[in-house]
Design brief:
By secondary structure, the chain is α/β, with parallel strands linked by helices. Helix content is about 20%, strand content about 30%. The chain has a 7-stranded mixed sheet, covered by helices on one side. A 7-stranded mixed sheet has the order 7-8-9-10-11-12-13. Bound molecules: nickel (II) ion (NI) and manganese (II) ion.
Length: about 230
């Protein structure tokens, strides 16, 4: 698997020549101003919940790439109304088979409304399983004991989780989440985009190290084999 970070909670994972793009929010992000969204490849776009900072560039990238957009039922309906046709609706606990493996939509403790204020269904995260490996993107969430369930039945190679605090888990709770899911390799997202979610990257990395875990903080546009 290969992961590329596009800032905030947007990243893509390449599995078996397929690109899975998560939570596209790039053009409003000053830290990601060098990225040309017309160059982003996507076969699938996965949306964790309806908030602007997770969905903003979906319509544009969806139209450019004709990627299949996967999200909860309500968000998919909202996208259909906006003219996006290639979609797949899910809900919490459901698993979907794709050519490279499976995607499961799992619980997140957060909220979900669309940029126009309409109902955005339940917020979620995604567990992706494939021959090349397994990972879990928690989406925006607080620490929840539900995460233990995932650690009980899936061997995760890495997990992507928010560490910016205020709207989501911060570093300390992300370390506990890492215990719950039995996965010591964490990619931190949802930090430094706005002043309220600023973190000290070095302190965060050291806290993970002290707990015997690895926190990976990718540069924007950095790609890494994982
Ligand atoms: Ni959110
Ligand atoms: Mn968010």
């Amino acid at each position: 698997m290969k992961i590329t970070y596009y800032g905030h909670s947007c990243f893509s994972v390449e599995i078996k020549d397929k690109n899975l793009l998560f939570d596209p929010f790039i053009t409003p992000n000053q830290l990601a101003s060098k990225i040309d969204i017309n160059k982003i490849k996507a076969d699938y776009i996965l949306i964790s919940h309806g908030h602007t900072d997770h969905i903003y560039d979906t319509l544009e990238i969806g139209k450019n790439t004709d990627a299949k957009i996967i999200s909860n039922y309500e968000i998919v309906n909202w996208l259909l109304d906006k003219g996006i046709k290639n979609t797949h609706p899910m809900n919490i606990g459901g698993k979907y088979n794709l050519e490279f493996g499976t995607i499961k939509y799992v619980n997140a403790i957060h909220s979900s409304s669309m940029p126009d204020g309409s109902y955005g269904g339940n917020p979620g995260g995604f567990v992706v399983q494939s021959d090349e490996g397994n990972f879990y993107y928690t989406g925006d969430t607080g620490l929840t004991y539900d995460m233990k369930l995932i650690g009980e039945y899936i061997n995760l190679d890495f997990a992507v989780m928010p560490i910016g605090n205020n709207y989501t888990m911060g570093v300390d709770n992300a370390i506990i989440a890492s215990d719950y899911i039995n996965c010591s390799r964490i990619i931190g997202v949802h930090y430094n985009t706005f002043p309220i979610i600023t973190i000290d990257k070095q302190e965060a990395t050291e806290k993970f190290k002290l707990a015997g875990k690895e926190l990976i903080l990718l540069d924007i546009e950095e790609t890494r084999n994982i």
